[in-house]
Amino acid sequence: MNNVKQELKLTARDSLLTFADDVAQKGGAVRAEEAEPERHLVIFGLDREEFGIPIARAREIVRVPEITRVPQAPPHIRGVMNLRGRILPVVEIRTRFGLERAELTPRSRVVVVEAHGRMVGILVDVVSQVVKIGESAIVPPPDEVVSQRADYVSNVARVGPRLIILIELDKALLLENVSTPAPLLS
Amino acid sequence: MNDDAGNPFAELLEEYVAECAPLAEAVGDTLVTLERRWEEGDPADQLFGTLKGSLHTLKGNSAMMGLTAIQALAHCMEDVCAFLGERPDLRPSASGLLLRGAGVLVEMVGRAARGPLSADRSEAFISEAREFIQTESVGAEVSAPYPERRRFERRTGSEVGELGADGVVSTIRVDARRLDGLLETFGETMIAGLGLREAVRDLAVHHRGAGFTDLEHALTSLEKTLKRLEGALMATRLVSIATVFGRFNLLVREVANAHEKRVRLVTSGGETQLDKTVIDRLGEPLVHLVTNAVIHGLESPEDRERAGKPAEATVTLSATQRSDRVILTVTDDGRGLDPERILHKARQLGAVAADATPSREEVFAMAFLPGLSTTERVSALAGRGVGLDVVANSIRTLGGSIEVASEPGKGTKFTMSLPLTLAVLRSLLVAVDGERYAVPLGDVAESLRVTNEAIHEVDGHGMMFWRGQVIPVSDAAEVLGGRAARSSRTYCVVVRSGAKRRGMLVDGLLGHQDVVVKALDPSLGRPPTISGATILGDGRIACILDTARFAELRTTEAATPSLS
Amino acid sequence: MSAKPVFLVVDDSRLHHQMYMLVFAKGALAGSTLLHAKNGREGYALFTTHPEIEMVFLDLNMPEMNGLEFLERRRSENLHPHIPVVLVTTEDSAEDEARGRAAGAWEYLRKPFTPAQLTELVERARARSVRT
């Protein structure tokens, strides 16, 4: 099991590094002490905040491709994108988190993740880092974070002066309830 | 597909189906009538003779084609008939058995042209029939010995042996999911082909000469091969609709008995073929329509006679292919829909303004509104009280449309239009507001250039003259939730859904293209005017318009252009 | 035998007519003319007006005059007794075959038959007519 996990990390990381070119330049994965269990995270930025998701959940990080708008789609859906022949929804995670719609910049990226057994793209402002964080740095979220985002924030990680909000993807991307058609009258 | 090269007449398989499918259906229909006559104590010998004749012809024809499983089935049904010939007292109790056999017969004959047949169902029937004959013969020995019983035993016994030994045609069972996977891969190949074609077109601007011509030729031949591959792939997925129709004889009989109706079911066009996915998902909505027709659409025999109609009602199921669509109808000659009642309920539900005076057609269209038909049509036998809205939704998710026409006192007719296949769609690409959309070509009545002057404002709704009639016009950009700037839309695509027409103003017509249909991820909700998406040759995505929904937009939803 | 040989097919199944056409379009029988009738009554009318018919393929079970009725009428009218009539039956019609022979059928052919069986019958009949 451990071997498998290791392998998975490696391949996932390889592909991540290929796509996230600026990540490589920044380099400097934060290292904790040898013995401590670690979490391997992808860190992305929205506005001035940093968010983290487990690297195992991220399939790919790609530059923003052509996104096709889907008429009458729910508001947090930016559109659909073509990932090697598959049509994936692209989630405007910013509006889901109560922020304004994203302006696309050269640093914008789509993080392709798996949630609820399906592949979904998440549009983010920037992918800043792939880090390993020791378990001891991961703590329950402070109150001010909880109050607004209790439903999808699992924990926070403190890396030096930075506060990284760890997202529970399945909850953050629980989008269906927004668009489920009203039950039939009986 | 006909790998039974051993049969010298294999090339006549299509002809076989064309002749035998109606014959098999006739067997079912005759049996339904016979059953009632027998129950009434009428031996109906002449009709019984017709039945035996049909079975005999089916047996002979199937034998000639080397379709031994069908041959054995027809033969076995003949045996049951011969047995009943000597035992008229058993006829009423055996009709159900024969009807089941007829269902299998219809299904197998319908499938015969599409490759190897499985004998599972026919064998199951044969053993059931054999058991029936044996049990009844034993019972009969006490009271009225059945003189030729031994003959039956011998014959049915050898039949089973033949079935086992003679493997008919080499059969390969394929998991349907594998076929789906194959189709998906084919779709990707086709998209890659489209991309290649576009790249070549771009190159053509700068390159000429022999080498380039070779490239073009190679590509053209690749495209042709892909087209053939598509056809072959689709053929493996086509199933004759007789497989669905086959169940209805029994169903109608049961429902009619339970509700004390007298109903004759007529089916036609059972040989019409549709994609397996469509067939699989078609059964349920059809069952609802037919059940509803029998329970609610038809009057009691007494009421019918009082109204001057034949006591026996007719429910008709028909299928016909029209270019790349299949038209299905469910018709009854019952009391018809009551427009007043529908309108009343629609008003209660707030679906229509209290002072609105919709046309009769518009009123009938309201029957498909959620909540409208559910309460009216709850039935113990139908299980759940499923409304017409659910039926309409199932049809729409198949890329189809449904409409209803009715004449009070005369009957009701549901007409469904369905795509032959769900995988590849012939479409017209249009440009709207910087995006491209694929419009199913089968739903396009015409596409034309229009000027602003051609669009008239009537009560704030866009209207235009088209082929001598006035049709509503909507700005596609606005319906699709984009910016409205009508002045820039210079083309109009007239889309149709049943009798409905609607003009759709677009920015440009980009030509015809076969597109590979992909479903939208559920997280995209169910956008009402979009039925799916496709990847175009340049790798970009285009949404596929749900033309039927577009054509059926109510004026309020239709977002007529505002001139702001 | 300079003129094209003529055969009469009497069968209520369109499919069977096409099968005969397939067989008669090929090999030794290529170039034959086929007359088609969809029941015994039509078949008898053609039989009456075409004495040049070389052989008749007569289905047993048909509406509007079946094969046996056809044969019995021909015998009673003694119409073209030289033309061999082949009664086409299914495997379980042994009784009818006997009656058919009694009514003047020259031979019978059981379904399912093969093109070779059909060709063989024609050749056998030709050999017979040469001998006599």
Roughly how much helix do the residues of chain C carry, as a percent range? Answer: 40-55%
Overall strand count of chain C: 5
Gross morphology of chain C is globular
Indicate the radius of gyration of chain B in whole angstroms.
Answer: 28 Å
Shape of chain B: flat
Proportion in β-strands of chain B: 15-25%
Low-confidence sequence ranges of chain B = 139-170, 374-385, 555-564
* Beta strand count of chain B: 18
* Content-based structural category of chain C: alpha/beta
Strand order of the largest sheet of chain C: 2-1-3-4-5
Mean pLDDT of chain B: 79
Structural class of chain B: alpha+beta
Cα radius of gyration of chain C in angstroms: 14 Å
For the largest beta-sheet of chain B, the strand count, sense and barrel status come to: 6 strands, mixed
Unreliable stretches of chain C (pLDDT < 50, length at least 5) are none
Q: How would you sum up the major sheet of chain C?
A: 5 strands, parallel
Beta fraction of chain C? 15-25%
Count of helical stretches of chain B = 17
Assembly form of the protein: heterotrimer
Can you give a write-up of this model?
The complex is a heterotrimer of chains A (186), B (564) and C (132). With 186 residues, chain A is of the alpha+beta class. The model of chain A is unreliable at 1-33 and 177-186 (pLDDT under 50). Chain A contains six helices and eleven strands. In chain A, the strands form two sheets. Chain A has a six-stranded mixed sheet. Chain A has helices spanning 2-19, 21-26, 93-96, 143-149, 169-172, 176-179; strands at 38-46, 49-54, 58-63, 77-83, 86-91, 109-115, 118-124, 126-134, 138-139, 153-159, 162-167. Chain B is an alpha+beta fold and 564 residues long. Chain B has 17 helices and 18 strands. In chain B, a hairpin with a 2-residue loop joins strand 4 and strand 5 (325-332). In chain B, helix 3 packs antiparallel against helix 4 (91-111), helix 7 runs antiparallel to helix 8 (210-237) and helix 11 (276-297) packs antiparallel against helix 15 (388-397). The longest helix of chain B has 28 residues, at 176-203. The radius of gyration of chain B is 28 Å and the shape is flat. Chain C is of the alpha/beta class and 132 residues long. Helix content of chain C is 44%, strand content 21%. In chain C, helix 2 (40-49) packs parallel to helix 3 (67-77).
